[in-house]
Amino acid sequence: MPQLPPAAPRTMASRIRSIFSGSVGNLVEWYDWYVYSAFALYFAPAFFPKGNLTAQLLNSAAIFAVGFLMRPLGGWLMGVYADRAGRKAALLASVLLMCGGSLLIALTPSYSQIGVAAPVLLVVARLLQGLSVGGEYGTSATYLSEMADQRNRGFFSSFQYVTLIAGQLLALLVQLGLQQWLTTAEMYAWGWRVPFALGAIAALVALYLRRSMEETDAFTRQTAPATGQPQRPSQLRVLLQHPREILTVVGLTLGGTVVFYTFTTYVQKFLVNTTGFTKGQATLVSFGALGVAMLLQPLLGAISDRVGRRPVLLFFGVGATLLTVPLLTALGRANGPGAAFGLLLVALVIVSGYTSINAVVKAELFPTEIRALGVGLPYALTVAIFGGSAEYVALLAKDHGVENWFYWYVTGCAAFSLVVYLRMPDTRATSRMREE
Known about the structure:
The chain has 21 helices and no strands. The chain has helices at residues 12-38, 40-47, 53-69, 71-85, 87-107, 111-114, 117-147, 153-157, 159-181, 184-191, 193-210, 217-220, 235-239, 243-275, 279-307, 309-332, 337-355, 358-363, 371-399, 403-423, 427-430. Helix 9 (159-181) packs antiparallel against helix 15 (279-307) and helix 14 (243-275) packs antiparallel against helix 17 (337-355). The longest helix is centred in the middle third of the chain and has 33 residues, at 243-275.
């Protein structure tokens, strides 16, 4: 089998330009994804029959979870595509899908206008977005990890969650702006459509920027099949030859995704529905805490380049296992935005032990030819089952008067991942990227 010619040495400036191009697209994709959760309080009455707020939020949370069900399919299809056609091609496809989903939500008439077709179209839009995000995570994690140099891989790959959190912050910033400029009635009537329209436009801009991205050296150095050679085996079949790595991805993701979605997407509803804050107060608290957490990602990523990945993961696992119940209990009783901000910030500092390095840890587990698929598919399956349902489980527990059961559920998920962290090797020392 002939070898592709070796790529010219990549300069640090070239790496940074490519990482920036990839990260901007990642930011837009996650903005589009999180706008749904940020504005659910406003659009839920438009898409569902009249009822109490918790019932309408349950309906919107169920569709939020449905979007997650497409993420494994996206992780599979985009992972295969990224490992066959290239990381760049898959990242272009994922942002195009996200554009379509956001535009559909922005334009869908309300339940009072078209009846049951409204929630049906909302489901279709979330399925498109779920397919997009499912492919985005694995491909983006692979791209950033491969584009980084070995000494700074944790630092550069942490920008996946910098831009992911930045997407959430942008969604909240748009929400804060609209809350200031529009009346509550206008927000419920049509204001919630604005962020989805902005997301569709931004996705087109991201599509343009991603066209200038360079392909990673790891992908371009792969051997090319010679003419007449038998077809390569199914990538899914090759992936299944790495059961330990697959289970490691599932185990290290399970606790991280549940804790992450609890303290980022669900917490805004928690502060309104449980603590009793106004929507504006809940948005400000979430925005401030997430802003600090975003800045922590490169710091912890850089620390992992010095001390290893495992100690940083253990910081998250121990902290989340011991402090989730006390933090959620205190947050539910917070007597003001300042106290809530402090508690949420502690929670997000702990979560950052997972978010800052989970992408590079997963990428370091797999060889180049199945890396995007290996990172994306088991991650997406785990997030679909546990992360996507976290908000629904929380609201269901509250609806049945046993909200504190959810606190223990989150703790149990974190403890499960802690066991995985204790047993897994440090991927900085065992990285498959060392072979490239």
